[in-house]
Known about the structure:
The structure holds two protein chains of two kinds.
Chain A: E1 3-5, E2 10-14, E3 19-21, E4 24-26, E5 31-38, E6 44-50, E7 56-58, E8 64-68, E9 73-78, E10 87-95, E11 104-105, E12 109-114
Parallel strand pairs in A: 2-12
Antiparallel strand pairs in A: 1-4, 3-9, 5-6, 5-10, 7-8, 8-9, 10-11, 10-12
Chain B: E1 5-7, E2 10-13, E3 19-24, E4 31-38, E5 42-50, E6 53-56, E7 65-71, E8 74-79, E9 88-95, E10 103-104, E11 108-112
Parallel strand pairs in B: 2-11
Antiparallel strand pairs in B: 1-3, 3-8, 4-5, 4-9, 5-6, 7-8, 9-10, 9-11
Amino acid sequence: AQSVAQPEDQVNVAEGNPLTVKCTYSVSGNPYLFWYVQYPNRGLQFLLKYITGDNLVKGSYGFEAEFNKSQTSFHLKKPSALVSDSALYFCAVRGNSGGYQKVTFGTGTKLQVIP
Amino acid sequence: DAGVIQSPRHEVTEMGQEVTLRCKPISGHDYLFWYRQTMMRGLELLIYFNNNVPIDDSGMPEDRFSAKMPNASFSTLKIQPSEPRDSAVYFCASSGLFDYGYTFGSGTRLTVV
Lengths: 115, 113
């Protein structure tokens, strides 16, 4: 069975500082990995994905994520946090070992950017 | 495309009443998912459909919950009778066979009093 772990319920960072939201995964075969963001009273919005190729993936709003196969991690990063980045962030994984496999979401990490 | 459309956005109902949530997926998407989000449990997958057929309903909490997809452009999630513990935000999402991720609707915030 595939799974995703987001070890931090909340991450606080000062505006202008770099941010990291952690994610580790478990899946059979090679993974498809995703980050979604949820703003208050909104649905989940796609941020970025890793399918294959370059381990550093760039996404929307200046976010990027680094795929590390040996550590089975896919941490979300941004060089300089904005107050408007404050939201709930979900990491997700999907296996690709044949047949259709649904996406498994993590429990979410609340990012609070402090002015 | 207007994305995944859910209605209503908010629903307040009394305990014991029937509640029906609606979803219109993105045209051409083969998969439709219903999720529930609460502070206590986070994001839970309730059921998903492929080509209008329910594939996995193991996340449906009780027999009070039922979901249908009569055609490729419409799905409903029904709760009968509703209880206060059903209060949550319910999301619908859809995906194409060759898509890698999901597109979510804006959700229905259900409050059962």
